[in-house]
Write a structure and sequence with these properties.
Blueprint (H helix, E strand, L loop, with lengths): L14 E5 L3 E7 L5 E8 L9 H10 L8 H12 L4 E8 L10 E4 L28 E2 L4 E6 L7 E2 L5 E2 L10 E2 L3 E3 L5 E4 L3 E6 L2 E5 L1 E4 L10 E3 L2 E4 L8 E4 L2 E8 L3 E4 L3 E7 L5 E4 L3 E7 L2 E4 L3 E14 L3 E3 L3 E9 L3 E6 L7 E5 L3 H23 L7 H19 L9 E8 L4 E4 L2 E4 L4 E2 L2 E5 L6 E4 L8 H21 L7
Parallel strand pairs: 10-14, 15-17, 16-18, 17-19, 18-20, 19-21, 20-22, 21-23, 22-24, 23-25, 24-25, 25-26, 25-27, 26-28, 27-28, 27-29, 28-30, 29-31
Antiparallel strand pairs: 1-2, 2-3, 3-4, 5-7, 6-13, 7-12, 8-9, 11-12, 13-14, 30-33, 30-34, 31-32, 34-35
Helix pairs in contact: 3-4
Length: 492
């Protein structure tokens, strides 16, 4: 036989009054019938007090079947024996219904800008630049899991009726762009690499993030798997990191910018510590006092000044100068003015992989330390065979680095207007300081025949130094052949 189900009501609580010669007993149920309170009033005209058996009979008469609370039963009967009144004593109770937990959206990704952890007993330093949560996900990765709502636990009234549970509310979720729901309806996966966004009930993965205004304390640091566009400036002290590229319509201060794609901006004054790491190419109006590492080209429209730039493409300044600082460009250098009429030191290295230079410097220091260790050791205490082997190994590694060839290599410097005195230029393995200022357009390449540099009429960087020098070598060989053919027989 099916159990009767109790219904949660809002009407008056059930009340049962029992009058006997010696007392008046009242049972009052709570509105949900889960609790039963009793009140006892002894008679003023005599009679016998309430007994345990009478109490059980009264409860049964009114279908109250829940077990009595022992302490409450003892108090009631003791009061009856003492002819004392009792008011609203909780006599028995059933069990309340427990609603089911609401469904939940459990994110499958963590923040890319973690919150600072503080040691126990040490006050934490709050970084007010971290004001956003960037939950990034790779294509095909788990975005979130949908946790179904709980069914709840049924309750029981003091009369033995079952109170049906209320299930939790399901997750109200709409799928936005670049996400899909699994066949079982429990998991959401990313269809593209990007940032997980939850707006109201819509879950999506976005690969373009637009900041309308400046990157400041309102926006905070940015770490985004996708493309970032900033319509304003990036203020001092913030970093912007994006995998697919960064476009900043304004200027960059003392910041850290990092992307695997292209980076473009109006200008940057890094004050000696601002950095850019770029896996693509960089375009800007001006760059000043910044540290840049770039896998592609670095192109400025107006000026590059007092910076350190290492790139595997071309460094170019269209209208202005390349002044002060150090510049390493595997694909060559082109600018309107190179150097400064002041004493500002300018160094340009073209046609050399900056990573190879760093590796060669490391090997040189390793060899230097080996020799110093040998000289400092007591005479006769060094294993000469082991020392020689280590020296040979360093030499072989050095030769291996020097023998590397790169398709983009172009040891060439183009100057459109003025090449200033004092500029230090390195082309391949040849390095020299410009002793005399040169005006007008000029291309500087290595003179592989006579040594030093060649200063030629300017040609595009697409016409590489190797192509030009090959022409000179061919001409030199033809002249040598001609000279040999003009020597009379028997001549010296």
């Amino acid at each position: 036989m099916a159990e009767k189900q109790g219904i949660k009501g809002t009407g008056p609580a059930p009340r049962f009054e029992i009058k006997r010669y010696g007392y008046t007993l009242v049972f009052e149920l709570s509105s949900d019938a889960v609790e039963c309170y009793c009140s006892y009033e002894p008679s003023t005209i005599g009679g016998t007090p309430l007994t345990s058996s009478e109490l059980q009979a009264h409860l049964k008469q009114h279908s109250i079947t829940a077990p009595l609370i022992p302490e409450a039963e003892s108090k009631l009967l003791l009061s009856a024996m003492s002819a004392a009144a009792v008011s609203r004593l909780l006599l028995t109770q059933g069990s309340r219904m427990i609603p089911g937990e609401d469904g939940q959206l459990v994110m499958g990704v963590a923040e890319d800008i973690p919150k600072a952890e503080s040691d126990e007993g040490i006050a934490s330093v709050i970084d007010f630049r971290n004001v956003q949560s960037f939950m990034n996900v790779e294509k095909g990765g788990l975005v979130a899991t949908i946790k179904a709502p709980g069914t709840g636990t049924p309750g029981l009234t003091v009369t033995g009726k079952v109170i049906p549970p209320e299930p939790g509310a399901p997750v109200l979720l709409e799928l936005g762009q670049n996400v899909r729901l699994s066949e079982d309806g429990q998991n959401v996966f990313a269809l593209a690499t990007g940032r997980v966004c939850v707006r109201e009930n819509v879950l999506s993965v976005e690969d373009i993030y637009v900041i309308d205004g400046n990157v400041d304390f309102k926006v905070g640091n940015i770490s985004f798997k996708g493309y970032v566009e900033v319509t304003g400036d990036v203020l001092d002290g913030f970093f912007v990191k994006a995998t697919k590229g960064i476009k900043i319509q304004g200027n960059i201060g003392v910041c850290a910018i990092e992307s695997e794609g292209d980076v473009s901006f109006c200008g940057m004054n890094g004050q000696g510590t601002g950095t850019i790491k770029c896996g693509g190419s960089i375009t800007a109006n001006f760059i000043c006092d910044s540290l840049i590492e770039c896998a592609g080209n670095v192109a400025a429209e107006v000026e590059i000044r007092s910076s350190t730039i290492k790139c595997l493409g071309v460094i170019s300044v269209n209208k202005g100068g390349l002044t002060g600082g150090e510049y390493f460009a595997l694909g060559g250098v082109e600018c309107a003015t190179l150097g400064s009429i002041t004493s500002l030191r300018t160094r340009v290295v073209a046609g050399v992989h900056y990573g190879d230079l760093e590796e060669l410097n490391g090997l040189f220091n390793e060899l230097k330390a080996l020799v110093a260790e040998f000289n400092a050791a007591p005479k006769g205490s060094v294993d000469m065979k082991a020392f020689a082997q280590r020296r040979v190994t360093i030499t072989e590694r050095t030769q291996a680095v020097r023998s590397r060839a790169y398709e983009r290599c172009n040891p060439k410097v183009n100057v459109k207007k003025r090449l200033c005195e004092g500029v230090n230029i390195t082309l391949g393995s040849v390095s020299d300081i410009i002793r005399e200022e040169r005006n007008g357009s000029v291309s500087v390449i290595e003179n592989t025949i006579e040594g030093g540099f060649r200063f030629l009429g300017m040609t595009p960087l697409s016409f590489t130094a190797q192509m030009i020098e090959q022409t000179f070598r061919q001409q030199s060989e033809l002249e040598q052949q001609k000279n040999r053919s003009n020597i009379p027989e028997g001549g010296a």
